[in-house]
Design a protein that fits this description.
- This protein has 215 residues and is mostly helical.
- The radius of gyration is 17 Å and the shape is globular.
- It is built from eight helices and no strands.
- It has helices at residues 2-27, 38-45, 49-68, 79-97, 105-128, 135-147, 151-173, 182-210.
Length: 215
């Protein structure tokens, strides 16, 4: 029973993150740093955001394997099928939002903030379940383990790389920067703080729910 609860909450977390991504896209005020190159790339190659997300995440897993070698944990291969599921969530939710048009900046700003909060809530849920990390996080953890680079510093570096890639893609192929705006900055600054705040209030309760007798 506890495994059912654990995986249900894990996938619920992924679903809520997918919701947050789509709310950020809908707001048109900037996506999170992780999505900052995925969304422009999907526009450039005319493939859905969910499909591009799945492919990129699977590539991240490949990089993890190359970096860690024998240190790579076999269970982390679950990131591959879970990435496919996550991509399906992104496209499924996106299909519901495809015809929605937000009326003004104030509404768009609120929707963007809700998207940031949703991503933080989803992250707290899936991380507490301790199944496997989401590939962007797994990629950072791999470099942290292999080269002893602090996670926080490497997170900043990878976020900057993702944003830079998004700027390059948008500038060269889309005629201007479209998906990296104030929402991207807000997401980069506050998402970690929201996760930390929620963790202090939810983590123990979530773990007691998923692991009633311990791991």
């Amino acid at each position: 029973m506890k495994h059912i609860i654990r995986f249900t909450l894990y996938f619920l977390g992924l679903f809520i993150i997918a919701l947050g991504i789509n709310l950020s896209i809908l707001s048109n005020l900037g996506v999170s740093p992780v999505s900052a190159f995925i969304v422009p790339l999907s526009k450039v190659i005319h493939i859905s955001v969910g499909t591009v997300t799945s492919v990129c995440y699977c590539m991240f897993v490949g990089i993890e394997i190359a970096v860690l070698g024998k240190r790579f944990r076999i269970k982390n291969l679950l990131q591959v099928p879970f990435s496919v599921v996550f991509g399906i969530f992104v496209d499924l939710i996106g299909s519901f939002f495809s015809a929605v048009v937000l009326p003004n900046y104030a509404v768009r700003f609120v929707v963007m903030l809700i998207g940031v909060i949703a991503c933080a809530i989803g992250a707290v849920l899936y991380m507490a379940m301790d199944v496997v990390p989401n590939p962007p996080e797994g990629l950072i953890l791999a470099f942290t383990e292999r080269f002893a680079i602090p996670f926080g510093k490497l997170k900043i570096v990878t976020d900057c790389i993702f944003v830079l890639l998004g700027i390059v893609l948008s500038g060269f192929f889309l005629g201007g920067i479209q998906d990296i705006r104030e929402g991207t900055i807000i997401s980069a600054i506050v998402t970690g703080k929201i996760i930390g705040w929620l963790n202090t209030r939810w983590e123990v309760k979530l773990k007691n729910l998923a692991f009633p007798s311990g791991k």
